[in-house]
Amino acid sequence: MEWQVWLGITAIVIASAALVVALGARSQQSRMRRQQPAAIHLTQVQAVPRAPRLLAFVANPSKAGMGDLEATVRAFCERQGLAEPLWYETTVEDPGTGPAKQAVEAGADVVVAAGGDGTVRAVAEALVGTRVPMGLLPMGTGNLLARNLQISVTSVNDALDVIAGGRTRTIDVGWARIAEFADPGPDDDTDREHVFLVIAGLGFDAAMVADADATLKRAVGWVAYFLAGLPHLHGRRMRARIWLDDTPPVDARLRSFIIGNCGLLPGGITLLPDAVVDDGILDVAAIDTRGGVVGWAQLTLEVVMQGFGVRNDLPEKLGRIDHTKARRARIRVAGGEQAQVDGDPLGNAVELETWVQPAALRVRVP
């Protein structure tokens, strides 16, 4: 067996061991966080002027566990002495923005997104710029924003306690727009702006999202995204031109271009370790690998270790992730690549624009 293959096997073993250690450490950190309140700037978390009395729930009926959720919610509100909650359901035609606007017009004190990341994005789109906070009742595969805000993704009652008895935090939101599609279809709209609360991306990450099987996601959760990514490991690298704010463009060869509002992913992986959800700026990561399996193994190790504050800044690496910050980021790629926002595919994009809207959304947090 050639030495390169042995090197690849060794790199994968090291990366896998680091991943196991990271997941164990993340689990311990999560237990510690549940035992003590998170450290948050006082200017960014404020008490609600009065305890919420009227809760409105925008629920995605297609999610697992939704059958008994309405009864659970109504029983919770009754125990807490709250008004009878408003209950809306999403549809294929309206994933939540319309019902959320109806809830605001009906006088809801908190509008709760009960579903996955797509429902959260749709509800957030209706609440951006209003004084009505969003609550999170995670029922999806990734539950990305809930994880980043330390809201339980496993206990409905714990999440409800945060909605009714937590605090309100003002956070930034990101926006993305496909300025040019590779093969425009009848539903592709270059004027459509998409909100994202965690991560937007173009390239390998978006291809993985687009190819994830819905049935498999229901069966194994976020692992379905990992399995969907395997066929793309040997795909071609993108030829990209990147603009950040007002700086001159930079040309690069990449696997993925990530723009994030916060950076914690399922499995305890921190993709953007410097990202802060309310700092008024986006975190940008350029991800690349060369050398086949060795490069991917090195990249895996790089991502895992940066979650512990350990970074390897050596210039010559087969797998690397380079970080910077910007308020606006634009990328153009030859031939087009898949784009995504918070795990929702947007289509095959030649050019993707993103920008931040600071302090635009109120969210209930522990």
UniProtKB/TrEMBL annotation:
PROSITE patterns linked to this entry: DAGK
A GO term for molecular function: ATP binding
Transmembrane segments: 6-25
InterPro entries cross-referenced by the UniProt entry: ATP-NAD_kinase_N, Diacylglycerol_kinase_cat_dom, Lipid_Phosphate_FormReg, NAD/diacylglycerol_kinase_sf, YegS/DAGK_C
Keyword Transmembrane helix: yes
Cofactors required: Mg(2+)
Assigned keywords, A-Z: ATP-binding, Kinase, Lipid biosynthesis, Lipid metabolism, Membrane, Nucleotide-binding, Phospholipid biosynthesis, Phospholipid metabolism, Transferase, Transmembrane, Transmembrane helix
GO biological process terms on file: phospholipid biosynthetic process
DAGKc domain boundaries: 49-180
Top-level division of the source organism's lineage: Bacteria
Repressor as UniProt keyword: no
SUPFAM superfamilies reported in the protein's UniProt record: NAD kinase/diacylglycerol kinase-like (SSF111331)
Family affiliation: Belongs to the diacylglycerol/lipid kinase family.
Protein's recorded name: NAD(+)/NADH kinase
Lineage of the species this protein comes from: Bacteria, Bacillati, Actinomycetota, Actinomycetes, Micrococcales
